[in-house]
Write a structure and sequence with these properties.
Number of helices: 6
Distance between the termini: 21 Å
Order of helices and strands: EEEHEEHEHHHEHEEE
Bound molecules: adenosine-5'-triphosphate, magnesium ion
Strand content: 25-35%
Number of domains: 1
Radius of gyration: 17 Å
Largest sheet: 6 strands, mixed
CATH class: Alpha Beta
CATH superfamily: P-loop containing nucleotide triphosphate hydrolases
CATH architecture: 3-Layer(aba) Sandwich
Structural class: alpha/beta
């Protein structure tokens, strides 16, 4: 569905080029749960940015349904990010002056998605806190709002970068159960340091020094 062909992501650094991803070929298949493991700095976040079109490969190609992401217009690329993909970032992003519920609804500005957003907040255990502003939530609660937002509208692929890192084990398991339940409608790609979060995974890839092993 979305894939990389010999893709590299290179950052220019004062000491030379940093290959955050190095010659990676990888496909996310329809409906699969793909896990990505690897030490800190091995390129896992960079890999998600390439697969989801948030970053453009320095070399090689990123494709969606066989079409190069670089061939899409800005409008097509933004539709892909907004409607086709969901993203949970490693560091949760919420709009500071919007409530938890509103922070979910902003992901679909053109639709009436209040009921679905509320149901997702309840699913992540925050139904009672829907009116709270981000600074009135704990770090783990904010991360759960981000998980709910990523699932809104049933995206084709949900990319999650350490979605359980700020959570205790039991809450992490619950969040992973919710993410796994998304597999009925789409694919799930999860970066994690914790292999116990990858129960039921279809495929796990390991990264080291920018390469998929
Ligand atoms: N904007 C940047 N400029 C220069 N180097 C960068 C930049 N972003 C990331 N890197 C480097 O690219 C490499 C891969 O980073 P990346 O964030 O993808 O790793 P990661 O596997 O997600 O690590 P972590 O588990 O700590 O989140 C690292 O060496 C990092 O220092
Ligand atoms: Mg990372």
């Amino acid at each position: 569905m979305t894939s990389l062909e010999s893709a590299s992501l290179v950052y220019a650094d004062k000491d030379g080029d940093v290959f955050a991803c190095h010659d990676v070929s990888l496909e996310v298949r329809p409906g699969e749960f793909l896990g990505i493991l690897g030490p800190s700095g091995s390129g896992k976040s960079s890999l998600l940015y390439l697969l989801s079109g948030l970053k453009v490969p320095t070399q090689g190609r990123a494709l969606y349904r066989g079409r190069g992401l670089d061939e899409l217009s800005d409008a097509e690329r933004s539709r892909l990010r907004l409607q086709t993909f969901g993203f949970v970032f490693q560091h949760p992003f919420l709009v500071g002056y919007l409530s938890a519920l509103e922070n979910i609804m902003v992901a679909r500005p053109d639709q009436d998605c209040r009921d679905e957003s509320m149901a997702l907040l309840e699913a992540v255990g925050l139904g009672e806190k829907s009116h709270r502003l981000p600074h009135e939530l704990s770090g783990g609660e904010r991360q759960r709002v981000c998980v709910a937002r990523a699932l809104l509208g049933g995206p084709e692929i949900v990319f999650c970068d350490e979605p359980t890192a700020a959570l205790d084990h039991a809450t992490g398991i619950k969040v992973m159960d919710l993410l796994r339940s998304h597999r009925g409608t789409g694919s799930l790609v999860v970066v994690t340091h914790d292999p116990t979060m990858l129960e039921g995974v279809d495929r796990a890839v390991h990264m080291a020094e920018g390469r998929v092993l």
